[in-house]
Specification:
Elements lengths: L1 H5 L3 H13 L6 H13 L3 H11 L10 H13 L3 H13 L6 H13 L3 H13 L6 H12 L4 H7 L14 H16 L1
């Protein structure tokens, strides 16, 4: 299933699922994750949601886990379906599956792509409040919202060419926060 998903082969994903059913193999947590991620990679968000919903009633230990929920949240966020992504984040918690830093970062990324820097920052604050430590990737994603309006002259003046644009480097949390503040101040000036 996963290999067909990585290849964007929807027919292959469906055929692999059919083979599992024909063999009497019940999905487990890993299989649910592979199914949801495969459908997301194929751009089939409705099928991804259906796959996740179908596993929610399975017996404990065989239900979808953090990977399945995160794959769906990421697909929805990247597709600009942020309210649905947040709804699945709530459902995830209700189902007893704890979101991780990657889950939150996918929503932060969707909000940054949508131009909602305040919303992205609020998600980072919420994740911290819930005891989930943001990663360097989380901070770099948030940093993108701060540099969106920075001009080449600002970049040269601040000597942050390794932070903005295509050459973005992975920064530590403290460096990303410091750079974000400096760039935001420069963009506001």
């Amino acid at each position: 299933i996963a290999a067909h998903g990585r290849a964007g082969d929807l027919k292959g994903v469906r055929a692999a699922e059919q083979q599992m059913r024909a063999a009497g193999v019940r999905p487990n947590e890993a299989t649910h994750g592979a199914r949801v991620a495969a459908y997301v990679r194929c751009g089939e968000m409705d099928l991804a949601e259906r796959a996740l919903r179908s596993g929610r009633s399975d017996k404990p230990g065989a239900r979808p886990g953090v990977y399945a929920y995160t794959a769906l949240v990421q697909g929805l966020s990247r597709g600009g379906r942020l309210e649905e992504a947040r709804g699945w984040l709530d459902t995830m918690r209700e189902d007893g599956v704890a979101p991780n830093a990657f889950t939150y970062t996918t929503i932060v990324d969707g909000l940054v792509r949508a131009g909602d820097a305040a919303g992205a920052e609020a998600v980072v604050e919420a994740m911290i409040k819930e005891g989930v430590e943001p990663t360097a990737v989380t901070y770099n994603t948030l940093l993108k919202s701060c540099v969106a309006g920075v001009t080449p002259a600002d970049r040269k003046a601040l000597k942050f060419t390794g932070v903005v644009g295509e050459e973005t480097e992975v920064l530590g949390a403290a460096a990303a926060t410091e750079a974000a503040a400096a760039l935001a101040a420069a963009a506001a000036a």
